[in-house]
C-alpha cells in the first residue's frame, strides 16, 4: 500500500511538472507559428500556420492531446521541423549522458573521501574553500577552464564539436572541459553535504572506542564510519543525478555541445512546445526515479546499519 501511494505521488508530481511547463510555454510572447512565419508575415499567413500546427485549439485541449499521446509513448512532432520528438530526445539524452555520468561518478567517488577527511579533522578552512567552489557558477568556471586549458596551454579544444553522425566517444577530448566544469562544484557540494554526517559519526562512542584500542584510522573509517554514511550518500546521489542533468544546460551552451541543453535553448527560442514538454517530462522522470530509488535504498541501508 505504501509503495503504491509513493508511485501515485510521483506520477502526480510528474503530471504537475508537465502542466506547469506547458502553461509557462503558452504564456511566452509569440508562438511557433509567429516565429516560423518570420517578421514580415501577414496575419493571414500566421493564422494558417496556427491552424496547421494545431495552435488554434484551446490550451487544455492541446495539453490533453499531448498527455494522451505521452501515456502511449508518443511525444508528438516538433513544431519547427516536424520530426518525432521521442527519437530526438533520446539522441540528445544519450549525448548528455556522456557528460552527466562521469560528473556523477566523480562527485561521489571524490566527494565522499573528501568529506571523510574534512569531517574527521573538522577543517574549517577546507570547508570554506569547498563552499566557495560549490557556489561558483558553472559558466564562470567553464570560461576559466577554456582560457587556461584551451587558450593558454592549447591542450584541449575550446568547443566540444562532435563528428557528424558520431558520438562524443569518437572524440573523448571534447568531454574533458565540460566534465571538469561540472565535476568541480559537484565534488565540493557532495563533500559539504556529507561533512556533517561524517562529523556526527566520528563523535560516536563506537568510533572513539575503536581508536582507543589502537585500530588504524583508515580501518575505523572503512568499518565504522562509511557504513553509517550509506543512507545520506544514497540521498545525495539521487539529488546529484537531477542536479547534474539540469546543470548540463549551461555547460553545453558554453561549449556548443549537442546535448539536451542545446536542444532546450533552441526549443525555447522557437517556442517548440512538444520538445519542451518532452524535455521536462524526461528530466522530471529521471529525477523522480532517482529519488524513489534513493529512498528505498537508504531505508534498507538504515535498517542494516541500525541492526549492527
UniProtKB/TrEMBL annotation:
Keyword Repeat: no
Entry's localization field: Cell membrane
Transmembrane segments: 93-117, 129-155, 175-194, 233-258, 278-302
Primary location recorded for the protein, binned into one broad class: membrane
The keyword Transport is assigned to this record: yes
Pfam families the record matches: BPD_transp_1 (PF00528), BPD_transp_1_N (PF19300)
Source taxon at top rank: Bacteria
Domain ABC transmembrane type-1: 93-298
Keyword terms of this UniProt record: Cell membrane, Membrane, Transmembrane, Transmembrane helix, Transport
Bilayer topology term: Multi-pass membrane protein
Protein family: Belongs to the binding-protein-dependent transport system permease family.
Name used for this protein in its record: ABC transporter permease
Protein source organism: Lentzea rhizosphaerae
Amino acid at each position: 500500500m505504501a509503495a503504491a501511494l509513493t508511485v501515485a505521488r510521483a506520477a502526480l508530481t510528474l503530471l504537475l511538472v508537465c502542466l506547469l511547463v506547458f502553461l509557462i510555454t503558452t504564456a511566452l510572447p509569440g508562438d511557433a507559428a509567429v516565429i516560423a512565419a518570420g517578421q514580415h508575415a501577414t496575419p493571414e499567413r500566421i493564422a494558417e500556420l496556427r491552424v496547421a500546427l494545431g495552435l488554434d485549439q484551446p490550451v487544455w485541449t492541446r495539453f490533453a492531446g499531448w498527455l494522451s499521446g505521452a501515456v502511449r509513448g508518443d511525444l508528438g512532432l516538433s513544431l519547427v521541423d516536424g520530426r518525432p520528438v521521442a527519437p530526438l530526445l533520446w539522441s540528445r539524452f544519450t549525448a548528455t549522458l556522456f557528460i552527466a555520468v562521469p560528473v556523477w561518478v566523480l562527485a561521489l567517488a571524490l566527494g565522499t573521501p573528501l568529506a571523510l577527511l574534512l569531517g574527521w579533522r573538522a577543517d574549517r578552512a577546507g570547508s570554506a574553500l569547498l563552499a566557495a567552489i560549490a557556489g561558483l557558477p558553472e559558466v564562470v568556471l567553464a570560461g576559466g577552464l577554456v582560457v587556461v586549458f584551451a587558450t593558454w596551454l592549447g591542450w584541449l579544444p575550446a568547443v566540444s564539436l562532435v563528428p557528424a553522425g558520431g558520438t562524443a566517444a569518437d572524440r573523448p577530448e571534447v568531454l574533458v572541459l565540460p566534465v571538469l566544469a561540472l565535476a568541480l562544484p559537484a565534488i565540493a557540494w557532495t563533500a559539504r553535504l556529507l561533512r556533517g554526517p561524517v562529523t556526527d559519526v566520528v563523535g560516536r562512542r563506537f568510533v572513539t572506542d575503536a581508536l582507543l584500542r589502537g585500530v588504524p584510522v583508515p580501518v575505523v573509517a572503512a568499518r565504522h564510519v562509511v557504513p553509517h554514511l550509506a543512507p545520506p550518500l544514497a540521498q545525495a546521489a539521487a539529488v546529484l543525478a537531477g542536479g547534474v542533468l539540469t546543470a548540463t544546460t549551461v555547460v553545453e551552451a558554453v561549449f556548443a555541445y549537442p546535448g539536451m541543453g542545446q536542444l532546450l535553448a533552441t526549443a525555447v527560442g522557437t517556442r517548440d512546445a512538444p520538445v519542451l514538454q518532452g524535455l521536462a517530462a524526461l528530466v522530471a522522470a529521471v529525477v523522480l526515479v532517482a529519488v524513489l530509488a534513493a529512498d528505498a535504498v537508504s531505508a534498507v541501508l538504515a535498517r542494516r546499519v541500525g541492526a549492527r
